[in-house]
Amino acid sequence: MTVLYAVIAILIFGLLVAIHEFGHFSAAKLCGVRVEEFAVGMGPALWKKQKGETLYSLRAVPFGGYCAMTGEDGESDDPRAFGNQKVWKRLLILVAGSFNNFLLGFLIVLILQASTGLVPNDREIPVIGSFMEGCPYESADGLQAGDRFVSINGQPVKTYSEVRALLAEDGSYDFVLERNGKQLELRNFTIERRLYPGSDTPLIGFYFASYLKGGVGDHLRAAWDTTKGYVRLVWESLRMLVHGQVGVNDLAGPVGIVDMMATTGAQQETTADALWMIFSFGAFIAVNLAVMNMLPIPALDGGRVFLLLVTAVIEGVTRKKINPKYEGYIHAAGMVLLLALMAYVLLHDIIRLVTG
Fold first, then answer.
1. What range does the domain containing 293 cover?
2. Which runs of E-coded beta strand occur in 103-238?
3. Torsion angle, alpha carbons of 340, 342, 347, 350, to 10
4. CATH number for the domain harbouring residue 168
5. 336: pLDDT confidence band, cut at 50, 70 and 90?
6. Which terminus of the chain, N or C, has less C-beta within 10 A?
7. Do 14 and 51 fall into the same domain?
8. Per residue in 24-60, pLDDT tens?
9. Which among 280, 182, 183, 88 is positioned nearest to 174, based on CA atoms?
């Protein structure tokens, strides 16, 4: 099964790259820029087809891809060249790849969460999730899993923290509950803390739900929160890298990422759980690619955006157009350094894979 999960991981990684490049491609077409080639993968071409002015190709190495536009790194007399477009069009094209990755990550999270019908109870909605073994409150005439506290002794409650505060002392309480869409009352309901199996201190006897059934809006909000959490995690990882808390040897390239995804899948008890974890991992990698590509580093989309804005300011002040070949030199130097880093990380991934 590990081989199967590795194949699925490779396909997901290839999809992430293809979606990124398709963002550049679709934005370029929308802005009227001439696209010479749209490639999925790198290396020798397995399949090529010329359609109109664009060559479409599928290449042997699934870890990569590109959208080659006329005049991308040099001067061109073609009015449809990338460098001859207005600044806002070039910005749109450059950020479209990362936008697609972020959107894909969000959609994967949304689909995974919506498939369960449940959303995290991060708003502390006071719904009973389960009871401790031997709890006397669970009965047809008492409390039931799924009950939502509406008020306690006439005081409305919105969160389970409020419920805990109002039930701080043992005694009799008047509850208004919501059950199956209807409200019911429990009067003079006695709450007494006691010891339950595995507990060292007297407890109230029930747990509040960690997940709840959610509607469309709930799922959208939950998926958005999870995706934002991925972004924060990426920034935290970058901070740790800058401050030396992690080193270059801790980085993982495509080989390392695929290996981690396949290993994670193989560690799950069922195929469904394995696929869930692999696609969750894929969503995080999608967001990771979106953030990393927008860093202001030459050869990355963020570096191109940064230099584009700097060039636009200089040209606006001096009223002179800067030869785009200079920007091309900067990106070429950045690409050499980036490829060297990628080669080092790839070698380190292979060594880790071989040595275990």
1. 2-119+216-355
2. 118-120, 128-131, 148-152, 155-156, 171-179, 182-191, 206-208, 211-213
3. -170
4. 2.30.42.10
5. confident
6. C
7. yes
8. 999 999 999 999 999 988 889 999 999 999 999 999 8
9. 183
